[in-house]
């Protein structure tokens, strides 16, 4: 006791109190920490138990039982079932003898508040639980691959049943159109109903492969029937109403034309009508038997054939007046072209005698040989018409062909006549030019004579005579047949250019001489006043009498301009007015 008191005295009562309080706090903290850990691990063990129970609740045993049932009808599944059963037993033993035991041990330890090695055991529990969960899930996945066969098959059956229900709903909307025409359609639906009953029986007995095959077969039949019911009402309406109505109109038209003079045999009416009836009968049988492959195309062709026959008959009926008009028109055109050919043959012979032709042109004689064949065809066509046994429609085509063949020669005839006229015009142009040359020569002679300019007359006499000779030579060349028109035109153009040049020269000299006379007359008024003017004008007169008109004009104008500037311009204006 004394020792204790001394210890207290050494430490101090106050310090001792603080130490005591600290120890109490530490103990309380330790107790609180231990309680929190205990609470944590209890929560963890509860979670572990819940997870384990969740894994235990997986439908492994139920699914394994279904695999066992499936294996009875699928021998290839038996071995898998035995493997999965062993795996399930192993997992169950693992859960009971290892995982479950450790869970109970940890749970009991926590119940008594013992935390020794609890963290290690919890980690071990977590690892074991993961193994248990992974193995269970893996086994379930393997089992479901087999049991999924049934699920997939049932989904497929549901899909096919829904398609069949939609088919029945659609059929109810068209039953009144179809049922009395297609007698066997009731049996098809009854067979499908029986197939669904048989399919359900297969599924109940786990005959999934057989059920799958039957489902596919039913699906194809439903699609086949759905496709046909989409088109069936239209096909029935066509063969029961639309086509018979057209045939009725066709019969009436045939009855009407049978009393007229129409060559129906030429249009093969009987064979075509028989083919229409036969096709309609066969197609109707196919529709009643739901053999609808290509029925749409057959019906379309059948309608087209009926329309084509009716059109041919109506056109034949309307073709008589048309035929008469076309034949008259064709006969007129052929006659006109024949007359043109006769004239063209004459003209071809004439131009070949008149002209040397160095260019290509339409050979009328050769073209006429082709036209002669068309004439022969028109004669044969006329004989056929006189015989009487022909179709107006077909005959219109023949008449049109003969007419068109004949008209194809019109371009050749037009080209030939254009070429002929071109030759005639070319020669006429040369003739006109020769006449113009003679007229110009007469004008030159007349102008020289009227102006009394002997120097000009003497100077140009030989030129004028040469021009007359050249014109005569050209005329002689033209009259020598056959003549080459290009050479004739060349000679005429050359002579024309020379004559016009001669005319211009003579005319210019005459105008110059007139201007000299005007200048001298104008200058005479200044002779008495200016000696220089008298002298220069005398020189101009001498030059004028010698035929040097240009020098005379220059001399006279120079002195006049010197005396009175601007006079030359007035002189030119005066001369221009006279010209």
From TrEMBL:
List GO terms (cellular component aspect): plasma membrane; septin ring
Major site of localization recorded for this protein? membrane
Q: Which residues cross the membrane?
A: 12-33
Question: Which residue stretches, if any, does this entry annotate as coiled coil?
Answer: 115-149, 273-319
The listed locations are: Cell membrane
Keywords in UniProt for this one?
Cell cycle, Cell division, Coiled coil, Membrane, Septation, Transmembrane, Transmembrane helix
Q: Which GO terms describe its biological process?
A: division septum assembly; septin ring assembly
Per the record, membrane topology reads:
Single-pass membrane protein
The keyword Flavoprotein appears for this protein: no
Looking at the keywords, is S-adenosyl-L-methionine present?
no
Protein name, entry field: Septation ring formation regulator EzrA
Say which species the protein is native to.
Massilimicrobiota timonensis
